[in-house]
Write a structure and sequence with these properties.
By secondary structure, this protein is an all-alpha fold. The chain folds into three domains: about 1-115; about 155-260, Serine Threonine Protein Phosphatase 5, Tetratricopeptide repeat; about 290-375, Serine Threonine Protein Phosphatase 5, Tetratricopeptide repeat (Alpha Horseshoe), CATH 1.25.40. Helix content is about 75%, strand content about 0%. The chain has 17 helices and no strands. It has helices at about 1-25, 30-50, 60-115, 125-130, 135-150, 155-165, 170-185, 190-200, 210-220, 225-240, 240-255, 265-280, 290-300, 300-320, 325-340, 345-355, 360-375. The longest helix has about 55 residues, at about 60-115. It is elongated and about 130 Å long. Its main location: other. One of its GO terms (biological process) is cytochrome complex assembly. This is C-type cytochrome biogenesis protein CcmI. It comes from Mesorhizobium zhangyense.
Length: about 375
Amino acid sequence: MMFWIVAALLTLGASLAVLLPLAGRSKGDSAGNEHDLEVYRDQLSELDRDMARGLIAPSDAEQARAEIARRIIRAGSSDDRSVSGLRFAASGRILGGMAVLAIPLISWGLYAVIGSPDLPSQPLRERLAQSPADSSVDELIARAEGHLAANPQDGRGWDVLAPVYLRLGRFDEAATAYRNAIRLEGSTAAREAGLGEAITDAGEGIVSSDAQRAFERALKLEPMQPKASFYLATALVQDGKMTEAAKAWEAMLALLPGDSPWRGPTEQALAETRKRLAEVGPQKPSVGPTQTEIDAAASMSQTDRNAMIETMVAGLDEKLRENPNDPEGWMRLVRSYLVLGKKDDARAAFNRGLAALGASSEDGRKFAGFAATLGLSATE
């Protein structure tokens, strides 16, 4: 009942807002014409009195009478047009009023037939209490989050919610959920691989040392875990170790079942790696910090890590100044910055390296291709 009362009041207000202007009548033109005619009649009477007293010549009086008559005729014609306009406006107001009244009547009738005016309102709390089969994905997630907020030690709940977060692109929340599931339910290959994937996606595709450790734990629990193997091979590519990456792809393909969904991505990655190896030829030893040093820096305190980074970068920068024609050295420098979360420094190093190698040279193209796998492009 309250719905119909509110709807009626809103409809009435909207209708009055349209009808009231239509109900007004403009009388200004008609009143003005009547006044002009009265003035012209008075002028004729005054003209007759002047003639009777001999104040005006008969010929002049006749001309004045003719002019006043012409004015009376024009005023009468204008009055006729005003009357016609008023009649037309009245007809328009009637049609407009009928249209304004017809719209709410028709819409109310349709809603009464196809709508659900008796359906009670459903606040979020009531929607979350309904059957899961009748809930949307967002409502199910909200229900799970509400449950975990009240029961944070429910490891099974975290385990269910973590891959959902991952599929929805909520990578930081997915990583937190995976960590809680591992802490409460124990470590499994699927949970560790999922954690590594969430960390990698949250880092814009960079397989950091934290992600690598998660993937390595997954492989210890399940040596043929495809997701962990794939991302660890990707880490080799990002580290500039193309030959080792190709061997990792080959070993992975030898173990994957024929119907595995990982075969396609792995074959594509191997083909791309072989293509890049063929373009650049045998890899030269690179300079700069090793992966072990990078991992050690990532696990240090902030102060110690900053000091170690400054030392590594200073040493690598000095070597690259002496020998700037070293694409592997530039790759390791860029990779080091990204693993440590310094994307601006990585981009600056990339631009310097590309300028030193030459964007159109073979080494320059190799370096640009490597940077592209890390999310950097020459246009930046």
